[in-house]
Design goal:
By secondary structure, this protein is an alpha+beta fold. Helix content is about 45%, strand content about 15%.
């Protein structure tokens, strides 16, 4: 197996972008206060409109009463329309504010009877409709450039006209108008607004304080959860009890527990790797130390040379062990390493790997061969990582060469079965008993009675890499072996079809 001390891949840890950090408290506060601050001016505007409506109603009622009283002052005397207020009645009409109240009495022909001549008269009815008597109506108008509110009504001077005249004849109608400026109405509306708005200036800070307090109380479970996590020992990766947090935080706690579980598995793998490495390195290091001490005590050059040879073998064994431990760590951390799977030709990877082991097969006096797919133009493609696949196949070939006696053969074969790709490594060694086939993939597991030197990690590496590629591993006796003593072994890996390619085998 070629020496390789490649470092484990560590995914980059980008610096957090400070520009995307935000406060959950501030965001919730913004979403609560922004509508409140937007609705507040709208409520003021609506309140002002309602206040104006409330202020208009009593003044309109007062105007209506005045029009009714004035209408009773108009009568017909000797065929002549008479309607003039006495000084006392005029004083009563303008008792509130002499300058803000206006009135006008006009006869059926529009003649001025009494009151302010400058007070605008009603416009003609639309569509030529006749004026209706007895109904008080309102309009907004101006006098001398000042806005006023006008109440007016038509008084029927001949009550018997409706029974004696034809429908086409219009009864004699006198006009009664009372108007007033809008100062008192505006003053009352402003007083109402002040009575409503001023308390709001007191209530609004109270609302803000209550919202602030409610948010602080609502987010306090997050602060408590933070304190509990910080108070944990560094090696405590136990899950957090979701019953101790509000229901809304339970999904976050569940995700955090999943992360703790994955982190615990990673830490456990690292601890196991360190423990395995420390345990397995004791033997070769102890042998190297013993051989070096013997070489230092020897004076015979031949003995020194023999000790140095043993020291070299121990060094080679330690190097192989370290390489396999690193390969196993790479295989176990492959999902975390983020290595991308590409669509590759399995036959090409297998052929190149076999070529790397040709010289080693000569040293073992074993015939190492490669059988490509039956059809030379056929491509057996899988989704995988070439480096990891070569590592896996190298361990299978190394295992076969170590257990196959000199003069035997090892064959690597690539073929397809339906939509699945098959990779087979076949040898003529002693084989593996059915009861041992489930255990040979365990770390440092050695079959009893086997005198072959090895670390016991090769097949564990094969299993890890196969699992990362979704491949199934099966062990059989070599169907081509003819020796009862050496039934041989056949390792078969079945790969799923690449993503996007249908699996007809299912």
């Amino acid at each position: 197996m070629p020496a390789s001390f490649e470092p484990l891949y560590v995914p980059p840890n980008p610096e957090p972008d400070e520009n995307i950090r935000h406060s959950l408290f501030g965001e919730i506060l913004d979403w609560m206060l922004a509508p409140l601050l937007l609705l507040w001016p709208m409520s003021i505007a609506i309140t002002y409109l309602v206040a104006k409506s409330i202020a208009n109603q009593p003044f309109d009622d007062a105007l209506e009463d005045r029009v009714t009283v004035l209408g009773q002052q108009i009568r017909t005397v000797d065929g002549k329309t008479v309607g003039q207020l006495r000084t006392a009645g005029r004083d009563i009409l303008r008792a509130d504010d002499v300058d803000s109240v206006y009135y006008l009495l006009a006869g059926p022909d529009g003649e001025h009877l009494d009151g302010d001549r400058d007070l605008p008269r009603p416009r003609a009815n639309r569509a030529g409709e006749p004026a209706r008597s007895g109904t008080v109506e309102f309009r907004n108008d101006t006098i001398h450039g000042t806005p006023i509110r006008v109440a007016y009504a038509y008084v029927n001077l001949d009550p018997l006209h409706e029974r004696t005249a034809s429908p086409t004849q219009t009864p004699p109608l006198a006009l009664v108008q009372v108007a007033e400026t809008l100062d008192k109405r505006a003053h009352l509306a402003n007083e109402i607004i002040k009575g409503v708005i001023l308390p709001q200036f007191i209530i609004l800070p109270v609302i803000l304080a209550l919202v602030w307090f409610a948010l602080s109380r609502g987010l306090s479970p997050l602060a408590e959860l933070q304190q509990r996590i910080r108070a944990r020992p560094q090696d405590d990766l136990s899950p957090i009890d979701p019953r101790q947090v509000p229901e809304e935080i339970s999904p976050l706690v569940g995700s955090f527990n999943d992360m703790l579980e994955r982190l615990g598995k990673t830490v456990e793998m690292q601890k196991r790797f360190i423990a395995d490495a420390a345990h397995q390195m004791k033997t070769p290091l102890a042998g190297m130390r013993m051989q070096s001490e013997l070489a230092l005590r020897e004076v015979d050059p031949a003995e020194i040379h023999r000790s140095l040879e043993q020291l070299a073998k121990s060094s080679e064994s330690a190097t192989r062990l370290i390489n396999q431990l690193l390969a196993l760590a790479r295989a176990e951390n492959q999902p975390q390493a983020g290595l991308a799977f590409d669509e590759i030709d399995l036959a090409t990877v297998a052929r190149e790997t076999v070529q790397d082991w040709v010289q080693a097969s000569f040293a073992h006096q074993i015939d190492l061969g490669f059988e490509p797919p039956a059809n030379d133009d056929e491509r057996v493609t899988i989704a995988g990582q070439p480096l990891m696949l070569r590592e896996m196949l190298s361990n299978l070939i190394d295992n076969a060469l170590r257990y196959t006696p000199p003069g035997g053969s090892v064959t690597v074969r690539v073929r397809s079965s339906g939509e699945h790709a098959l990779l087979e490594v076949e040898d003529t060694g002693p084989g593996i008993a059915p009861t041992e086939r489930l255990h040979v993939f365990e770390r440092f597991y050695r079959i009893l009675g086997s005198n072959t030197q090895g670390s016991g990690l090769g097949l564990a590496i094969v299993r890890e890499i196969a699992q990362q590629h979704g491949a199934d591993i099966d062990i059989f006796n070599n169907p081509r072996s003819v020796s009862p003593r050496f039934p041989g072994s056949l390792f078969r890996l079945t790969f799923p079809p690449p993503v996007g390619q249908p699996d007809h085998a299912d």
